[in-house]
């Protein structure tokens, strides 16, 4: 019997373990993570601003608030989860078929990331809705 490598399945298990650890230690993680240095020095929101709070809110099941903190993280995470599950299914059905990655995919991801970072700093509605909520 030929033993097959299943890297996508291993990656999925690792993500599940990390997610469980984050859920169980969220208050400790929130306390030790540093603030965003980009926001501290410029006053602008980087594309990742609010991601830490969004992760903690998702761990508590507060999806709407997590979306308000960082929509890119939540929606991008959902797309990544769907693609990851697709890869796992292909791996088990066809023995390792992978989603092809092209240069245009990289350009699209970088453009989305930078565009989100720019749009969330425009001080006019509806762009202000992309900025994370202030701490209370």
Q: Can you offer a commentary on this structure?
A:
This protein is mainly alpha-helical. It is 65% helix and 0% strand. The protein has one domain (7-130). The longest helix has 24 residues, at 71-94. The model has no long low-confidence stretch (mean pLDDT 84).
The arrangement of helices and strands along the chain is: HHHHHHH
Summarize the amount of helix as a percent range. Answer: 55-70%
- Describe the global form: globular
The number of distinct β-strands equals 0
Unreliable runs = none
Write a brief structural summary.
By secondary structure, this protein is mostly helical. Helix content is 65%, strand content 0%.
Give the helix/strand layout:
Elements: H1 7-24, H2 26-32, H3 37-42, H4 51-59, H5 63-69, H6 71-94, H7 103-119
Please name the defining characteristics of this protein.
136 residues, mainly alpha
């Amino acid at each position: 019997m030929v033993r097959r490598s299943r890297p996508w399945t291993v990656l999925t298990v690792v993500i599940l373990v990390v997610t469980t650890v984050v859920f169980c230690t969220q208050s400790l993680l929130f306390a030790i993570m540093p603030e965003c240095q980009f926001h501290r020095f410029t006053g602008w929101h980087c594309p990742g601003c609010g991601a830490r709070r969004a992760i903690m809110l998702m761990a508590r099941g507060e999806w709407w608030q997590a979306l308000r903190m960082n929509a890119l993280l939540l929606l991008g995470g959902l797309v990544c989860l769907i693609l990851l599950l697709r890869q796992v299914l292909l791996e088990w059905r066809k023995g390792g078929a992978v989603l092809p990655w092209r240069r245009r995919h990289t350009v699209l991801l970088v453009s989305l990331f930078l565009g989100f970072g720019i749009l969330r700093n425009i001080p006019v509605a509806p762009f202000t809705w992309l900025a994370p909520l202030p701490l209370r």
